[in-house]
EAL domain-containing protein (Metapseudomonas boanensis), 282 residues
Amino acid sequence: AKDSGRNAIQMFRRTMQDAASERLRLENDLRLALSRGEFELNFQPQVDARDSRVVGAEALLRWQHPTLGPQSPGEFIQVLEESGLILEVGGWALAESCRACKSLLGDGLVSAEQFSLCVNISPRQFRQSDFVERVTRTLSDSRLPASMLKLEITEGIVIQNLDDTIGKMRRLKKLGVSFAMDDFGTGYSSLTYLKRLPVDALKIDQSFVREATHDSNDAEIIRAIVAIARSLGLETIAEGVERSDQLVFLEQQGCHLYQGYLFSKPLPSAEFRTLLANSRQR
Ligand code: C2E
Ligand code: CA
Ligand code: CA
Ligand code: CA
């Protein structure tokens, strides 16, 4: 019995070591991926259900792995965040998003008044002391109108320093940048925070959307989010909309903007351009 206990401990250690070296290897691969330019952005359209217009898109990170093919951030975003690599990758994603959006504008595929590009900002990235300067510089390098840039932040940003967060957001909003609160309702939501933060939109998390039409709790949560947004004068946008019954429900609640497979998956840049070109002719 003593032996088998020892074996179990050894096995546990080995598993822990495997996990640790696996992680280190992934971290190294991600560092290489960055230097080799293996990251790409996909764009997922955001649609106004009332007239089917594409009102924006969310830029989503993809890793074109040389042997495994495209990898979604679910597999590696946490490693980027914990290793600090997210600062570089996030900076790249912001710059690339601004360049891509400027190019859509230059080619007449979108208009500055009717389209915004959403970029995910990790808490660590937002907390950089020079974050505002970085965004300012990226905007001026790309010559993208600031009003076309929307930053998606999560409730996790707030817990550290509310006043600092508000200060940075105000400075960016002065430039014309807007903010969406991502995954709303899944984190440390506090109405006190929400009231003080100068956000423009709430994104209804897909975990609520998924069961909204059969789970009365999820349905109630969505109703409550839309009501809060309305009373604070914020837009709502629903994510992960896959079926038309979900869309019908959301529209009944007064949420008209949505993003999800029902309309389109995230698309590589060329396909997203084709979609915009085709939808404009209608
Ligand atoms: P998120 O910000 O909540 O992004 C929405 C996720 O839902 C995306 O997953 C998108 O592909 C997926 N999605 C969209 N519509 C549907 C649908 O109808 N059904 C289902 N099942 N899923 C849908 P993705 O692209 O794998 O990204 C995962 C997460 O990685 C994102 O969640 C975001 O938190 C993070 N992420 C992605 N790109 C970046 C980035 O550039 N920077 C940072 N910091 N995080 C990023
Ligand atoms: Ca997002
Ligand atoms: Ca989200
Ligand atoms: Ca999410």
